[in-house]
Amino acid sequence: MATQFLKSHGINLQDEISKVQSSGDPVTSALSAVTEIRGVRIADYGPELIWDVLIKSGGVVCALHDAEKVKISTSDTHVVDGRNAILAPSLCHPHIHLDKCFLLYDPKYSDLSIEKGNLTEALSLTARAKARFTAEDLERRGCWLINESIDAGVTCMRAFVEVDASVRLKCLDAGLKLKHGYRDACEIQICAFAQDPLFSGEGAVEGRRLMEEALGRDGVDVVGTTPYVEASEDLMRKNVDWAIEMAMKYGEHLDLHLDYHLDANKEPMVYYVIDALHGRQWMRENRAKKIVLGHCTRLTLFTKDQWHNLRTRIGDLPVSFIGLPMSDLFMMGKPSDDRGGGERVRGTLQIPQMIQQYGFEGAIGINNVGNAFTPHGSCDPLAIASMGVGVYHAGTEHNAAILYETVSTRAKVAIGCRELNKSGTQDGGRGDFVLFRSGLLGGGGRVRRTLQQVVYDPPKSRLVLYKGRGVSSSAEFQRSVMKSPAEREIEGPQLPSIESGS
């Protein structure tokens, strides 16, 4: 794991984060810089061409194949042997909850087991767990999530941390320390998130006050709320209005958990959100920031005309929809106990269809891992892309490319990390990559020759680079680094640039 790689360079990350907690000292990174990834396939250029990708100061210089010679002169060159494997842009969590991860794996919460497996129970169990949260266990479980995510290939994530009258700023403090501690291995956006009502119940006023305090803290990037937990539709609208106001006041991204049900008799809140964003002149006042709408399972009941109407109403707003199939399929459509059990309507946004047929921006995310909302699954975004082949009936080569983008480049665009071309190898691009390997010593085993094969059956062995530095497991990474001569020749022309998009 990423922790092992850091340890091989004399860094115990959890010890260092503990030092941050006590002294505020930064975590110093000693990750190995890479100057070339030699002998790889790049998905956009077919399985037959083999490329060398040159990296300098954490950015891509160019990619080369065997048509012309370029001389490189350096005294400290680290070259990764690609073994003809697929090189692709790194992965992204566009929506993941950092503070309540792995509650089902922590002995401290062993009494909070799942009995019913529904949303009401998940909210109740999580509320009980939150009452026991400490800085130590928040940081410990957060390290588990970030370490496993980095090893899977994640170099960018939006991490939700809850702010309310129960936990106050405890989760935020832990999230900000983890963001700082991992700053050389992963870009972490912190979303100050109100899971609890902001206009219903006794803690609402204090919740709003704490959220404003959180949004004034350095390192907070996103305003997040959950309108559907309010007691009435009028209060849901107040929640939406307040969230938009805060995002514009503090110049932050906006992220709403929205329309998380399958009731055709309820008017979707998404219409009000879009109208409110236009009414508040988002594109004039906060156009540099992104808007994300998560879950939105009610929209799965839309007709073709309703989809087209929604796309027209959005207009030029920078709105992206995030499907969360791991949680959605577990929570949505469970039949009541008195039913036969055969009717199981499942609701999760059909993100590939929304992108290709209707022109929406979208991505898919893990949401939760190891808790009552999502007890199953891992921290690997590519696992849900692979599951999406069946969930979305998306088995073609083009569909596989879209699925990969939804956990990589499209996910990064959705949360405002940065915009990349599809391969991530354009000149000047940041050196954030995953190299998918066979995983066998000596280079044997089944190599995935296309991105389609990677999505169908994700390799477990991955080399991960962030800003041109290796951040994946030490043994595998070190086996792949060749110490090259100070001066040598490489053949190949410059890779043409590709515009970002579908």
Explain the overall architecture.
The chain is 34% helix and 20% strand. The chain has helices at residues 2-8, 13-23, 119-130, 135-152, 170-181, 204-215, 233-250, 270-279, 282-285, 304-314, 325-331, 351-358, 381-391, 397-406, 409-415, 451-456, 474-480; strands at residues 36-42, 51-56, 59-64, 69-73, 78-81, 86-89, 91-97, 154-162, 187-194, 220-225, 253-258, 291-295, 319-323, 361-364, 433-436, 462-466, 469-470, 481-483, 487-491. The strands form 3 sheets. Strands 1, 2, 3, 5, 6, 15, 16, 17 and 18 form a 9-stranded mixed sheet that branches. An 8-stranded parallel sheet has the order 7-8-9-10-11-12-13-14. It has a two-stranded antiparallel ribbon with strand order 4-19. The chain starts with a helix and ends in an 11-residue tail after the last strand.
Amount of helix: 25-40%
Largest sheet report: 9 strands, mixed
Separation, N- and C-terminal Cα atoms: 32 Å
What would you call the quaternary organization? Answer: single chain
Helix tally? 17
* E-strand count: 19
Which shape, going by the Cα principal axes?
globular
Q: What Rg is obtained from the alpha carbons, in whole angstroms?
A: 23 Å
Uncertain runs are: 1-14, 16-30, 71-76, 482-502
What's the overall average pLDDT, rounded? 84
SSE inventory with pairings:
Layout: H1 2-8, H2 13-23, E1 36-42, E2 51-56, E3 59-64, E4 69-73, E5 78-81, E6 86-89, E7 91-97, H3 119-130, H4 135-152, E8 154-162, H5 170-181, E9 187-194, H6 204-215, E10 220-225, H7 233-250, E11 253-258, H8 270-279, H9 282-285, E12 291-295, H10 304-314, E13 319-323, H11 325-331, H12 351-358, E14 361-364, H13 381-391, H14 397-406, H15 409-415, E15 433-436, H16 451-456, E16 462-466, E17 469-470, H17 474-480, E18 481-483, E19 487-491
Parallel strand pairs: 1-5, 1-6, 7-8, 8-9, 9-10, 10-11, 11-12, 12-13, 13-14
Antiparallel strand pairs: 1-2, 2-3, 4-19, 5-18, 6-15, 15-16, 16-17
